[in-house]
């Protein structure tokens, strides 16, 4: 559900605290525009639309990261992935559960049905699956580098798959893919420097949330209590309204992202929050929750840390598979509007707003926490939740990850609570005017590594909500 047909972002921290960000998201095809979509009769960009497929930036980003900070070659690094694709791998329980929910999506396309369903059904737990077309593509990239993906037979296969569904991507669009080195956006939170990547990602929204919450002294509140969750959700509702109004490709933003984390602006937002009642005048949004991404946090023996996130956006991305190369394409362009006049109106060469956000935190100028929270739109809220668990409530990394979560439905603004949120807290939130419903499943997932430079100790945590584990060697 993630891979070479998607995008990625990374934040690399040197042992001395120097930060470098990498934006590995691709742009919309040059021919894309609201006018072009109207001409094609497209009024909404759905998950499975060919117009939701922007140029997949992951492979170029991996190569850029490797050249900047790596010590090995693609050929050796791809070996295990090639082996799994060619020789097979067993389906794990969590993935099997997700697969069951997507049978209709995969069955709608003959190629995706042939590649990702077994006799028209989702695979069972433990069933071994093989992907020989993908193995050959990974082998080509391992041998020839990213250019093997963005030109030649693989690029032509991707373009043909999209063109067959009315897409407008060309091989020139793929050939133009590049990874951008960016300066992280940094804001202090109670003696810790929190670093996020700038737009077109939503990392700045996590910083806005933290800025708002800092004004309410969470450390004095019960972490399980009504007041804590009320403030967090109210801050999130405000911050996400800001996101939907402003955050997009920085070349198209009406305001500099640094203005959004200015003290005066955050004061203005915080003043809209009441301790004893829910706000009623926050703009609604039409975005629906998505939860399919992988996150990795890595720290090596020398203290170099990488906070890395890779995504197809939705379950099985767009559901569009390039048949000869086996590339399953993402649907990140679903964040675009088909109509003009919005921050995220589609435009040729424009990167869409991204939900995936790696992050790091520094303490006294030194790397302190490399972390990320999966969960589509939840991620910015998840960053604030994880950091306040650690900084305000003194939780260790694993406890902070395990702690129950809450998020609001982006259409109705009803609060969705995980099952371990106390009943008294839920009743308290209802008394403040919130609608609270049980979350349909786990909210997001997280990995994190805490770095104790003085003691030369790393402490890692991995989220039981997802497949994954903490490991050291």
Secondary structure topology:
Layout (H helix, E strand, L loop, with lengths): L6 E7 L5 E6 L9 H6 L18 H12 L4 H4 L1 H9 L1 E2 L2 H8 L2 H5 L2 H7 L11 E2 L2 H13 L2 H4 L1 H12 L7 H5 L4 E3 L2 E5 L2 E5 L6 H12 L11 H21 L10 H4 L2 H8 L21 E8 L5 E9 L7 E2 L4 E2 L30 E5 L2 E9 L4 H13 L5 H6 L3 E3 L6 E3 L5 H9 L4 E3 L6 E8 L4 E6 L11
Parallel strand pairs: 15-16
Antiparallel strand pairs: 1-2, 1-9, 2-5, 3-4, 6-7, 7-12, 8-9, 10-11, 12-13, 13-17, 14-15, 17-18
Number of strands: 18
Percent helix range: 25-40%
Specify Rg, calculated over alpha carbons.
22 Å
Instruction: Tell me the strand percentage band.
Output: 15-25%
Strand order of the largest sheet: 6-7-12-13-17-18
Query: Can you summarize the main beta sheet?
Result: 6 strands, antiparallel
**Number of separate structural domains:** 2
Structural class by secondary-structure content: alpha+beta
- Count the DSSP helices: 18
Are there runs of 5+ residues with pLDDT below 50, and where? 284-290
Q: On the 0-100 scale, what is the average pLDDT? A: 94
Task: Describe it.
This protein is globular. The chain is built from 18 helices and 18 strands. The protein has helices spanning 34-39, 58-69, 74-77, 79-87, 93-100, 103-107, 110-116, 132-144, 147-150, 152-163, 171-175, 203-214, 226-246, 257-260, 263-270, 379-391, 397-402, 423-431; strands at residues 7-13, 19-24, 89-90, 128-129, 180-182, 185-189, 192-196, 292-299, 305-313, 321-322, 327-328, 359-363, 366-374, 406-408, 415-417, 436-438, 445-452, 457-462. The chain is α+β, with helices and mostly antiparallel strands and 473 residues long. Helix 4 packs antiparallel against helix 8 (132-144), helix 12 crosses helix 13 (226-246) and helix 13 crosses helix 18. The chain has two domains: 7-181 and 292-335, no CATH class; 185-288 and 373-445, Serum Albumin, Chain A, Domain 1.
